[in-house]
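A quick aside before the break. I want you to see a complete sequence-to-structure record at least once, exactly as it would be stored in a machine-readable document. Don't worry about memorizing anything.
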Amino acid sequence: MNIKKYTGFFSVLHAVHESYPATYQFQIAFNNFVLNVFVNNALLAATLIHYFSEFIVLNPQQHVNSTVTVHDTPPLNFPYQYKTALPSAPHKLPKHEWIDLPDGRIVRHKRTNMHYIIADGYNCIAGSCVQYKNQVVNFINSRFINRQVDSGYLLGHAAAVTLNGRGVIISGNSGAGKSTLALHMLTSGADFVSNDRVLMHPSGQNPFYGTLQQPRINPGTALNNPKLEQILSPQERMEFGKMRPESLWQLEHKYDVLIPECYDAHRFIPHAPLSGAVIIDWCRNTEPMVIEEYAAQEARPYLAHMMKKNDLLYLPKNKEYTDPVLSDYIQALHDKPVFVIRGGVNFAEATKKLMNFLNTGHTSV
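That is the input. The structure line, written in C-alpha cells, reads:
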C-alpha cells in the first residue's frame, strides 16, 4: 500500500480498512458497555477472544456503544510531521507522537510503530498487532475509559479487588506491587476488579469501575504465589529462582495472568462499591510493615500516586474539558478510609490486614 498518497484522516482510515480488511468479528460486554471488535487476523482474533473469554457476548447484540477495528499490517509510515508527547516522568523516554488532522487524530507508538487512528465514532489500530497484543488490549480498554471520562468519572492509576460487597483500590508508585498485592488477596478469597486503571465518580458515589486488562506480573510474583505456578515453565522457575530478590524486583519481564485459568471462573468482576483506598509506600528493607489509616484530606501527599492523566487516545467530547486535579480525587474519597502502607515489604501481612477490612468492614486494619 502506497500510504504516501493518502493525506486526509478519512483517506488514511479507508486505506487501512481496504488494504487489510477486518472480517473476524466478536463482541465484548463489560460494565454495561458493549464493544464490537473487527480483526483482520484469525490467530489474533482467537487470542483476543481467549483473553476476554468471560466477557465475550455469545449472542451478539444489535445495540453497541462503540466499534474497534484491529489490523495486523506490515510497518506503516504516514507522511506527517508528528508532535512528540512529553514522557510521563522525567526519567522516561517519550512513548508517543501524534498529529491532529481536521477530522481526527493519528497517534504513533514510537518503539513499536503501532498506529492509532481515532475520531468521534472511529477507533482503528494498525501495525504489528499480533506481536504487540497488549497494545491492542489497552486500546480496547481505552474505549470504555473514554466513555466514562466523558461521563465525568475520574481516571485513577490503581489496581482493585472486592469481597462481601466492599471494594478497595490499591495505588502506589509504578513497580510498588499493586498487582502483586491484589493477586495475594485473590488467593485469600477476594475477587479481581482491575489491574492498573480505575474510574471513580467525583462525588464518591458507588460503584467504581475497572477495565478488562488481566494482571501483568513479573517473575518474582509468579515464584511467590502458588496460584501462579503455571505462569512460568520449569526452566524459568529454576533460572529466576537463582536470582536475588532485589534483581527480581527490578526485572522488566511481564507475564499475563488470566484470572479464570489461574483462579476460578467468574472471579473477575470489573466494578465494585468503593469502600476504601490503599496507598503502597513501602521499601525493600528490614523494617516492620505498618498500615496507618487517614482521612482523604490527611492523605493528600500520598493520593498523588492515584492521579492519572488521560493520554492521547482520549478525544474529549466536551471541548472545554480539563484534566482533574488532586482535590478532585480527595473529594471522591472524602468519606472513605485511606490506608497507607509503609515500612518493609510484606505482602502476606498486608494481605491479612486488608482482607480483614473486606471481611468485616472494620477500619482498624
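Two observations worth writing down. The chain has a mean pLDDT of 92. The first strand starts at residue 24 and ends at 30. We'll return to this after the break.
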